[in-house]
Amino acid sequence: MQSDKEHHQLKLEKLKTLRGCKSEEIIDSRLLKEVEKSDTQRLKEISNALINETRLKLSDAKRARDIISKAREEVNSSTRQSIMDMSRSTLKPSSLPKMQLPEKKLSHVASLIDPSIHSPRKSKHELTEKRVNRSPDPGNQSLLSPRKTNPKLQPLLSTSNSVSRAGYKSRAGSIKGKPKLNNEDSVIILPNLQKTRGQYLFSIADGHGTNGHTISQFIKDNYPSTLQEMLPAEPRLEAIESALTSSTEKIEDSLKTSTIDRMFSGATLISVLVCGNHLICSSLGDCKAFIYNFDQNWTSVPLHCLHTLTSKKEKERMIKNGARIAVEVIEETQEVISTEKAYMGSDDTPGLEITRSIGDKIGKCIGMSACPENKVYQLTPEDKFIVIGSTGFWKVICDNDALCMVRSSWEEGKIESACEDLIVEADRRWKKTGKDRDDVSVIIVFLSVN
After folding, report:
1. Between β-strands 157-158 and 196-197, what pairing exists: parallel, antiparallel or unpaired?
2. pTM across the whole model
3. Superfamily for the 128-138+154-307+372-447 domain
């Protein structure tokens, strides 16, 4: 006879064997008969308890999902409504009306008002020409505001960003049908100028003479860093103008101490500095920059100051400094074969049409200057893009031609195709003239002004 303890142990082992069986296995009927009814009832109670607990958890999970789903639906509904409200106020037409170029271009556009003057603007756009030789006005408020950052990090200034895209193309010219060895144009594009978001520098240095390419490269290598040294930490408009002027003159001084031969070589320079909704164009020479705006009609506005003998003021200044102004004439037929050029005394040197440049040591003896002139421009939502080009580009492309070619690319947001179209067309027109092709460079800046 088995003791009660052994009998109880046997029942436990059989019960464990029953619980370990898989649901798909066939359980021996003899084993089931040996399990007492009390043990079977206990298994049922445990199973029912587990089933009820599982059902309760599933019910709670379903209730939680319903609450989350309802909350998401309310949030999405609120977001859609706010987007619809915003779109009603900011929706713009997908395409602009057909371009209608005005017969008369605006020769004057609105200027940024000096904060010390309280008279209203006369028009929406205005340009002001300034030669900056004065200190900043303490009454002017700073254009930039410091951004809150980790105090251990260097604070990064920021301002509103008016530039959406920018690109450039440059192509060397040719002499007697053969490509030139050196491209005398140098292009500078510098975002986050002075580590300031929304501040950009766009420049083209156009060299001429035997060492023109070396001088333009010298400007590219030194001008950006020199300008950033001149700019104060929180620049005001007049401080920016003064920095542009001073940095250009410092490049001239640095070139004098370099080993580059600048006797009959030099470079012109045009720079467009965008700072938030303000633009300052600093130029010396004959490179050009135009800003294009749309308000019922398309309009091109010149940003540059042209420094050639075609300017009465520049011509008179050169004559006062001893320059001889003459044109090249064929003695037999008295046919004029060139425009007016500046010479030193009876010599046929330097023979330049421009009146301001960096370098040109001989030219400096007869009044050529390295001091740029600046124009300040206030950007508005009507301003769409800027085109900056070297002398070789604007010799064959006029401002209206550039507008017609860039407009469609601007509507599609394709900056690369806009640059390529202008360079290809300029190259084609140079070939058509049958003359030696000049170097061609262009910078295009797409704007998005708020």
Report:
1. parallel
2. 0.67
3. PPM-type phosphatase domain (3.60.40.10)
